[in-house]
Amino acid sequence: MRIPKVLAIHDISCAGRASLTVILPVLAACGIEAIPLPTAVLSNHLAFSHVSSLDFTPYMQSFMDAWDRNGISFDGIYSGYLASPEQVYVVKEAIKRYGGRIPVMIDPAMADHGRFYSGQNTEMVEHMRHLIRRAHVIKPNYTEACFLAGVSCDKNVIPDEGRIDYLLDYLGQSTERVIITSIPRGHDTYCNISLDKRTGEKEIVSFPYIPFTTYGTGDIFSSIVMAGTLKNIPLAQTMRIATAFLQKAIEATAKAGTSPLEGILFENMLPELTEIMERAVAGNE
């Protein structure tokens, strides 16, 4: 049985369960081989007090050149946190080299809770607007969706249906499949929403807020969506799987009482994820 290969363009945060240290095992559990193209190597994710980092931009093109010489190809491309606007051009180059007919997923990992991540700014938003046009699937969170659409984002204001539909319509102009995550919907309630323009299917999944802020959640969610895309699981179904799995993992992590900086305790749940994805594939064959 052939294992699909995904080119995973993300940073490596060595401590803290985020980015590639999460993405590689989650994709593996879903039956996908992830080949990393690092955007940066960090001692730990950015929420820690002290960070040592290496910008990997000077090496990214040479890695792709070596893969070309070795005849390595991919079945999908999945990009996330980019260390600089310059790396947007590297991702575009990767899509040009390997894209063809394979699915491309962009997670515009640059902001959350109404504000930018450290090192990100409006310049990255403008570059990201161009990059998502090359994608088949995009998965911004609510803050990123607002920034991309050029609308205000107050984390304390509940968006109405008109605002959500506008975000979906705007982002749907760039790509055929959209998921927006972590949309505030009321007191202690959030939702994820998907739109598949190919089928016209729109899905909303609500979930309760868990008062436990941690890291790597978006990486887990997006990795499941990427796997579902490669395995031809409908977008709405994949979103439901990712939402339920992540909710259960957050609950278990909060109960364990570990430091939020350590990220999601997902390792023991990977066999369960494998079974869930296998059932979903069998149900759609």
TrEMBL record:
KW Kinase (keyword) present: yes
Molecular functions per Gene Ontology: ATP binding; pyridoxal kinase activity
Gene Ontology cellular-component annotations: cytosol
Keyword Transferase carried by entry: yes
Domain Pyridoxamine kinase/Phosphomethylpyrimidine kinase: 71-258
Record protein name field: pyridoxal kinase
Xref: InterPro entries: PM/HMP-P_kinase-1 (IPR013749), PyrdxlKinase (IPR004625), Ribokinase-like (IPR029056)
GO biological process: pyridoxal 5'-phosphate salvage
Key words of the record: ATP-binding, Kinase, Nucleotide-binding, Transferase
EC supergroup of this enzyme: transferase
Organism the protein comes from: Allisonella histaminiformans
EC number: 2.7.1.35
Alphabetized Pfam families for the sequence: Phos_pyr_kin (PF08543)
PROSITE patterns from the UniProt entry: PROKAR_LIPOPROTEIN
